[in-house]
Structure formats: structure tokens, C-alpha cells
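User: Second chain of the day. Same drill as before.
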Amino acid sequence: MDIKKLAPWNWFKKEEEESAANVPVRRSGQTVSPEDRSLHPVLQLRREMDRLFENTFRGVGLAPFNTDFFTPLTSSGLLKPQVDIAATDNEYTITVEVPGVSEKDVTIEIADNNMIIRGEKKQEKEEKDKNYYRIERSYGSFQRLLSMPEDADQDNIKAKFKSGVLTIKMPRKDVPKSGVKRVEIK
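Assistant: Same format as last time:
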């Protein structure tokens, strides 16, 4: 039995470490994280409930669920697109939903065993009619930081972008067993 299958790799370890650096502020008997300070109390409650469920699911190795495509959860105001990660014996597949973003506005970098997915959403819609004129704009930057497992083959990563979905295929490589040594009992 492979114990690693029971406790899967935490891809969001580095991202969680960075968000933990934002120390919550205590005000009038309640704790408010920096990104929630400007939100209405009902939205703060929803965000805390979402965070509770995400941490619970992540703690048992399941992917958290969320209904928003972009959830502005970072204190820096960056958008946070949804990420799905699947694994087979041969490869990892990472899917990032970025609706309204074009391929040229997305970058993927590998640094210090971390995959950094960045992009920018620039959307403008203009309507002219004889009785009205309307322009809708949507702009924002996003970033996801994924800690890569030891068996990820960083030299053979392939990515494709289609219809607002970024799909990254990362082959798995054999990793030598760590220094496990059997002691003979006499």
C-alpha cells in the first residue's frame, strides 16, 4: 500500500504560507483578516464559511469547491481563478479556469519548485443604440502559486489554452526512495 496516496501532495502549500503572513486584525471582539476589512458583514461571514469548508476539504486531500470563477481572496487584490488538479500514475493535469482572458495574457513560470501562473483580464464591451450608450469594462490581475511535488518532471511540462481554460500536463518521474534502511533484528 502506498501511503502517499492516502495523504496527497499539498499543491497550495506556498500559496497558503503567503496568505498566512497576512495577520488578522481584531476589532470590537471579532477577528477580521486584511482582505475582509472593507466587506459588508454578510460577505465577511460568507467568506469565512467558504474558508472553513476549503480548509476542511483540503485537510482530507479533496479539492475545495467554489461557485465563483474568480474569487478575490488575496489581500493584494489579485483575482484567484479556480484550479483543478488530477493525477494518474503517469502525469499530473492542472486545469485553470480563466474566462474572458486571452492566451497572450497568461504566463507560466517555474521557480524554486513552484509553478507560478499569472495573467491579466482585460475585457471591454461597448454598445451603442439610438437611445443609449453603454461601456462595460472588466480588468484585473490574477496569480496562482502551486508547490510542485518531488516526482513532477519540470523539464517536460506542456500547456494549452482553449476557450478560457488553461490545461497543463506535467509528466511524473521516478523518484529514488528516500533513505529508508531496514534494521535487522537479532
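DSSP finds three helices and nine strands in the chain.

User: Great, on to the next one.
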